[in-house]
Amino acid sequence: MKTTLPLISFLLIAFSTISLSAADASPDPVLDITGKKLRSGIDYHVLPVFRGRGGGLTLASTGNETCPLDMVQERQEVNNGLPLTFSPVNPKKGVIRVSTDLNIKFSAATTCGQSTTWKLDFDESLQQYFITGGGVEGNPGPKTTSNWFKIEKYENDYKFLFCPTVCNYCKVICRDVGIFINNGTRRLALSDVPFKYFITSGGVEGNPGRKTISNWFKIEKYENDYKFLFCPTICDSCKVICADVGIFIKNGKQWLALSDRDVPFRVVFKKA
What we know:
Layout: E1 45-48, E2 57-60, E3 70-73, E4 84-88, E5 102-106, E6 119-123, E7 128-132, E8 150-154, E9 157-162, E10 175-182, E11 185-191, E12 197-200, E13 218-222, E14 225-230, E15 243-250, E16 253-259
Antiparallel strand pairs: 1-12, 2-3, 3-11, 4-5, 6-7, 8-9, 9-10, 10-11, 13-14, 14-15, 15-16
């Protein structure tokens, strides 16, 4: 049975844009959620604009084996995923701009022995193009066309586009990057329905309200000690989940995560 690409609606986030004069040949810079220009080599989180439709982007195994890893979207909205870095085709350019060829890479190490740089790959069994790991940074040309992506303005926000221009004589496809749901996993794939997102350099302190509910936690008494709880009450009209913060073990690593097994991460506090 063929899985179809779902139409995903997103909440519009207002962005300030920088208008360039006609004499300026440089495309507009990409801005994060605070209005700052994205820069090469800096870690950023990519988050969906609409809430309740999954979280940030991360790496995961999508087959029966633990390796290789593909690019997927977190199922839970509260998970920001892994940070990303962007590297323009011209490494001397420090500012990330729209409509410019980029290498995109997760700032994470894996046990699979593959790079975390994005690459386009075709899945014969599903007859679908997916975004996977194992890409090569730099070296623009005919041998690396599958490793280059672009950020494009999409209404008031952004989308990813695969349409490499690092080879003048190569025939390439040009399509948006969207979400393909396969066996419950939200995989990044070429699509006619783009994944609409905003970019953040991390959590936001203060400014309680609808746009920051994923940044607020609580400390609760737990028997003779304490635990962390995610159950923000800073937005009366928002629907949020409430769950303890526990430990999630994957590939031998222990991650802080929301726990649905009523096993909180018990803590005490010591002055540093």
